[in-house]
UniProtKB/TrEMBL annotation:
InterPro entries: HotDog_dom_sf, PAAI_dom, Thioestr_dom. CDD domains: PaaI_thioesterase (cd03443). It comes from Bradyrhizobium iriomotense. Gene3D superfamilies: Hotdog Thioesterase. This is Phenylacetic acid degradation protein. Residues 52-124 form the Thioesterase domain. Keywords: Hydrolase, Membrane, Transmembrane, Transmembrane helix. The keyword Membrane applies.
Length: 142
């Protein structure tokens, strides 16, 4: 795979301008993105919890999808119309309340029209994933 076409700062600027509904606050930070991998952190908030005190599925799915979008943007540049065509998630264990959630995204294949990747979601400092995601994105002709 090629080197990154957008730095973390460039991805953040693009997201603030083009996708502010998802990236306008300070709850999600992009810690790294290099065209092949990305690491995102979602700061803990009680809004993340579902009844029973576990991190909700919608929170995890949204973070995984966003992480995949970030790693893809870092690889292909500012192509805002790249969209998710498939996302599969396996919930492996309970996400702990009070802990940030980390998303480790990795591109598995980057083609002209499709990108396939995976995301491991981690709770706090535990090395054991709380969820594993595979995702496919469609890349428009530009």
């Amino acid at each position: 795979m090629a080197l990154a076409k957008m730095s973390v700062a460039e991805v953040e600027g693009f997201l603030r301008d083009e996708f502010p509904q998802a990236f306008s606050g300070d709850d999600i930070t992009i810690e790294s993105a290099d065209g092949q991998t990305a690491l995102l952190r979602q700061r803990y908030s009680e809004r993340m919890l579902r009844p029973g005190g576990t991190v909700s599925g919608p929170t995890l799915m949204a973070l995984a999808d966003f992480a995949m979008y970030v790693v893809l943007l870092s690889a292909i540049g500012p192509i805002g119309l790249a969209v998710t065509t498939n996302l599969n998630i396996n919930f492996l264990r309970k996400g702990q309340p009070g802990q940030d959630v980390l998303a480790e995204a990795r591109l598995l294949k980057l083609g002209k029209r499709l990108a396939v990747g995976e995301v491991n979601l981690l709770s706090g400092t535990s090395p054991d994933p709380i969820a594993h995601v595979t995702s496919t994105y469609s890349i428009p002709n530009v």
